[in-house]
UniProtKB/TrEMBL annotation:
The lineage of its organism: Bacteria, Bacillati, Actinomycetota, Actinomycetes, Kitasatosporales. The gene is gcvP. The keyword Zinc-finger does not apply. The modification N6-(pyridoxal phosphate)lysine is found at K709. Its EC number is 1.4.4.2. The glycine cleavage system catalyzes the degradation of glycine. The P protein binds the alpha-amino group of glycine through its pyridoxal phosphate cofactor; CO(2) is released and the remaining methylamine moiety is then transferred to the lipoamide cofactor of the H protein. GO terms for cellular component: cytosol; glycine cleavage complex. Residues 782-903 form the Glycine dehydrogenase C-terminal domain. This is Glycine dehydrogenase (decarboxylating). PANTHER family: GLYCINE DEHYDROGENASE (DECARBOXYLATING), MITOCHONDRIAL, GLYCINE DEHYDROGENASE, DECARBOXYLATING. The glycine cleavage system is composed of four proteins: P, T, L and H. It comes from Streptomyces coryli. NCBIfam families: gcvP, PRK04366.1.
Length: 961
């Protein structure tokens, strides 16, 4: 008997990637479907997904490819990029990523698959790393409180503008921007200022603040240090004069330069902003990079974004947590001063670790070498008769070459070096950590001069002003002195990673956050130099492969969502919201409907929706939520009628924030359109729609997508992310654009939302690869299995916890909300107790108390297999039994495993005076010593940390009561 013949074509195809990405195999899916009561995935989705939104059964996408084929395609795209030595500057510089950091942070799933540290007991490693980052920023800028990173330098400066207006004494007047500010920063500020009625004035402040501007009133001033041309000047006179006018002063500063120059805080600045890109983070065609902001103590509680603070746990040990106004927009909604709900954690960790590895002496040495190269470069140009625009500089010089700037830049390019074409008469040249003597020779040749590096070095003085040389110490904490060897650094990184819980340990069932597989194949190209080493303002023809990838991804996302056009520029979901709302605002204004300023938002919406609407110059009106969790359609109609021709837009999340497919969504969209408004569908939950329905086809005009959720970019411990927007044809002229790269958006666009033309371009290969690997059918099945997983969990847990909201057929979408409030009322066991007890069972808790207080929102994603889903369900069922023990009096209400969770190894080994056993504490039902995750701290006292705000690295005994 001969073996059955298998065709060669089948053998060559191998295992489809879809089977690697989707956790439950066919047999597991059959078991899950039986539990839910359906015979197939198609039957389930036919019942769960309303008929009125269906219409994505056939996505016009390329067929799925194997991992090897996709990597080969990526390599072909990468090979089409021309990576020259970049001496363009403008806030983006070549840097060496220490391999120990590249391998053990950027390429390590223990770091890149972690989520935002909202459960701080299991996030102590990345919180310590972020505290290091904050210390670096605070020390170098001379301002005592720094945040845990912002999105980039341009948007950080825009946040500083908003902060200045909020906290300053001058409430009217202009925001004054120095002409030396980076051009992309000026453009982002102008985009952000116009909708809120702020007038931005750009002026030459080298001789002080002009009298005619001072007379108009100035609420804030932005200065660049060093300036865009490279100039280093004493900012103190301008700062002092600004303070006399009552203005808040922000300095956008280069952190590497600050190792040698007087800190902005010492010059009198109130706020410092900038980027940490040159601290070991590749340029990546513009991002992602960790922006920074630091402020004076009196503004600490108004700082936008995330702030890591030091507190203590229940045992009195030092512990870290997110402090103060973190996720402010959830608390303040339309009264929030910022829509920032994310950070650039992975990149902030890299930048902080770069400082840990090099220490203050190493950083200063890199800065001195960079400066010496620039000084020698300048001396050679001057010796050859080339005029420079300034005598004092750090790493950048601007040469005056009347009428021949383009020729100089072209000659440098032929020699493999990109220079900055400032205008027809000026060329900018920046040195960095990667600059060599050979690069100087190539630049001299492009200018038509010759130079001898050694001879010029011996004869050339430094070009830093003596009066601005730094005298204060920085990075004095032991962490910046203890890890000089690679062995020590490796062990430090491992010790921090071991403290954390990430997807490499187990399931993170966070509702609304979609913690799915970030496949290694998808990640691989991110660190290739052909993608990572490109400057965002390099000539577009040098990025032919990259731009093809970008445009292909735009087209693929447009096909998936049903929109006409997609912009990838927004570098976070919140920025995508703002971009979408600005497009709607511009559309109404183009039609003469300037009165359309009302934004309707359901009460259940994510808090960033309201904050983004206010930033877009809109008035927020809240629409009630019905008991079912759906939008209250009667209240919606009433609000539409009430506001009439003032209606601009309805923002609605679909599937809803309550985790259901609302059946009346098309009716809702039609009602808004009939009133002349637009519909914004928040794409946070697109994970339930891909391949099943297209927002652009069932009534939405614009959506932002979360590539860090649905399209597999990892969360990185709280960033990076990408929040592109898709729009219908009539809104396409109002997508973001960029002054430095005309091809990045339409000429009629609203301006740049992010500092870089294509935002966080460095991580776009991840989503491109995901779509390519899965193909149309794989993407559809991923959505179906995500819906299956959520319904499976809902059915298993329903006998033990009420499932708060359901849609058609009693089904949920890709997430479900279970209600703990009745149990809390009956037993005193809180939602916090349940979340912390899950740590003892080896899980990250689901999303707590959003969108409803006292509930857990659970999203399993399609990537978790049945064994992990069952392990989670069994843990939740066991916790329900533990709650019953408290309720019955078997366990003391004030001293039980839930109230005392999580339990640490040190607590287990110490004195034990609890009425339950050590085994019940640390090995609850179903858990074993094998693979046990031990939290490094017990429950953290958040209130203590807020009362005693410490956000950098002093020893704990320096601030204890």
């Amino acid at each position: 008997m001969t073996a059955k013949r298998t065709p060669l074509t089948d053998l060559e195809r191998g295992t489809p990637f879809e089977q690697r990405h989707i956790g439950p195999d066919t047999a597991a899916q059959a078991k899950m479907l039986a539990q839910v009561g359906y015979g197939s995935l198609d039957e389930l989705t036919a019942a769960a997904v309303p008929e009125v939104i269906k219409g994505a059964e056939h996505l016009a996408l390329p067929a799925a490819r194997t991992e090897a084929e996709v990597l080969a395609e990526l390599r072909a795209l990468a090979d089409r990029n021309e990576v020259l030595t970049s001496m363009i500057g403008l806030g983006y510089h070549g840097t060496f990523t220490p391999p120990v950091i590249l391998r053990n942070v950027m390429e390590n799933p223990a770091w890149y698959t972690a989520y935002t540290p909202y459960q701080p007991e299991i996030s102590q490693g990345r919180l310590e790393a972020l505290l290091n980052f904050q210390t670096v920023v605070a020390d170098l800028t001379g301002l005592p409180t720094a945040g845990a990173s912002l999105l980039d330098e341009g948007t950080a400066a825009a946040e500083a503008m908003a902060l200045s207006r909020r906290v300053g004494k001058v409430k009217e007047g202009v925001f004054l921007v120095d002409a030396e500010t980076l051009p992309q920063t000026v453009a982002v500020i102008e985009t952000r200022a116009e909708p809120t009625g702020v007038e931005v004035v750009v002026a030459d402040l080298s001789e002080g603040i002009p009298a005619e501007i001072a007379e108009r009133g100035v609420f804030g001033v932005l200065l660049q240090y060093p300036g865009a041309s490279g100039v280093v000047r004493d900012l103190k006179p301008v700062i002092d004069r600004a303070h006399e006018l009552g203005a808040i002063v922000t300095v956008a500063a280069d952190l590497l330069a600050l190792t040698l120059l007087t800190a902005p805080g010492e010059l009198g600045a109130d706020i410092a902003v900038g980027t940490t890109q040159r601290f070991g983070v590749p340029m990546g065609f513009g991002g992602p990079h960790a922006g920074y902001m630091s402020v004076r103590d009196k503004f600490a509680r108004s700082l936008p974004g995330r702030l890591v603070g030091v507190s203590k746990d229940a045992d009195g040990q030092q512990a870290y947590r997110l402090a103060l106004q973190t996720r402010e927009q959830h608390i303040r909604r339309e009264k929030a001063t910022s829509n920032i709900c994310t950070a650039q954690v992975l990149l902030a960790v890299m930048a902080g670790m770069y400082a840990v590895y090099h220490g203050p002496d190493g950083l200063a040495a890199i800065a001195r070498r960079t400066h010496r190269l620039a000084a020698v470069l300048a001396a050679g140009l001057r010796a050859g008769g080339v005029e420079l625009t300034g005598d004092a500089f750090f790493d950048t010089v601007t040469a005056k070459v009347p009428g021949r700037a383009a020729d100089v830049v072209a000659k440098a390019r032929k020699a493999g070096v990109n220079l900055r074409l400032a205008d027809a008469d000026h060329v900018g040249v920046s040195c960095d950590e990667t600059t060599t003597r050979e690069h100087l020779a190539a630049v001299w040749a492009a200018f038509g001069v010759e130079g001898d590096v050694d001879g010029l070095d011996a004869a050339t003085d430094d070009a830093l002003p003596g009066g601005l040389l730094r005298t204060s110490e920085y990075l004095t904490h032991p962490v910046f002195h203890a890890h000089r060897s690679e062995t020590a650094m490796l062990r430090y990184l491992r010790s921090l990673a071991d403290k954390d819980y990430a997807l490499d340990r187990g399931m993170i069932p966070l509702g609304s956050c979609t913690m799915k597989l970030n496949a290694t194949t998808e990640m691989e190209a991110v660190t290739w130099p052909e993608f990572g080493a490109l400057h965002p303002f390099a000539p577009a023809d040098q990025a032919a492969g990259y731009l093809d990838l970008i445009h292909q991804l735009e087209d693929q996302l447009a096909e998936v969502t049903g929109y006409a056009k997609v912009s990838l520029q927004p570098n976070a979901g919140s920025q995508g919201e703002l971009a979408g709302l600005l497009a709607i605002r511009a559309y109404h204004r183009a039609n003469g409907d300037t009165q359309r300023t009302v934004c309707l938002i359901p009460a259940s919406a994510h808090g960033t929706n309201a904050a983004s609407a206010v930033m877009a110059g809109m008035k927020v009106v809240v629409v009630k939520t019905a008991e079912s969790g759906d939008v209250d359609v009667d209240d919606l109609h009433a609000k539409i009628e009430q506001h009439g021709d003032q209606l601009s837009v309805l923002m609605v999340t679909y599937p809803s924030t309550h985790g259901v497919f609302e059946e009346q969504i098309t009716e809702v969209c039609a009602a808004v359109h009939d009133a002349g408004g637009q519909v914004y569908v928040d794409g946070a939950n697109l994970n339930a729609l891909v391949g099943l329905a297209k927002p652009g086809k069932f009534g939405s005009d614009v959506s932002h997508l979360n590539l860090h959720k649905t399209f597999c970019i990892p969360h990185g411990g709280g960033g990076p992310g990408v929040g592109p927007i898709g729009v219908r044809e009539h809104l396409a002229p109002y997508l973001p654009n960029h002054p430095m790269q005309p091809s990045a958006g339409p000429e009629t666009g609203v301006g740049p939302i992010s500092a870089a033309p294509w935002g966080s371009a460095g991580i776009l290969p991840i989503s491109w690869a995901y779509v390519r690997l899965m193909g149309a059918e794989g993407l559809r099945r991923a959505s179906q299995v995500a819906v299956l997983g959520a319904n499976y969990i809902a059915k298993r847990l329903e006998p033990h916890y009420p499932v708060l909201y359901t849609g058609p057929g009693g089904l949920v979408a890709h997430e479900c909300i279970i209600d703990v409030r009745p149990l809390t009322k009956a037993t005193g066991v809180s939602i916090d107790d349940v979340a912390k007890r899950l740590i003892d069972y080896g899980f990250h808790a689901p999303t707590m108390s959003f969108p409803v207080a006292g509930t857990l929102m659970i999203e399993p994603t399609e990537s978790e297999d049945l064994a992990e889903l069952d392990r989670f369900c069994e843990a939740m069922i066991a916790i329900r039994a533990e709650i019953e023990k408290v309720g019955s009096g078997e366990w003391d209400a004030a001293d039980n495993p839930l109230r005392n969770a999580p339990h640490t190894a040190s607590r287990l080994a110490g004195k034990w005076d609890h009425p339950y056993s050590r085994e019940e504490a640390v090995f609850p039902a179903g858990t074993t010593a094998d693979g046990k995750y031990w939290p490094p701290v017990s429950r953290i006292d958040g209130a203590y940390g807020d009362r005693n705000l410490v956000c950098s690295c002093p020893p704990l005994d320096e601030y204890e009561d």
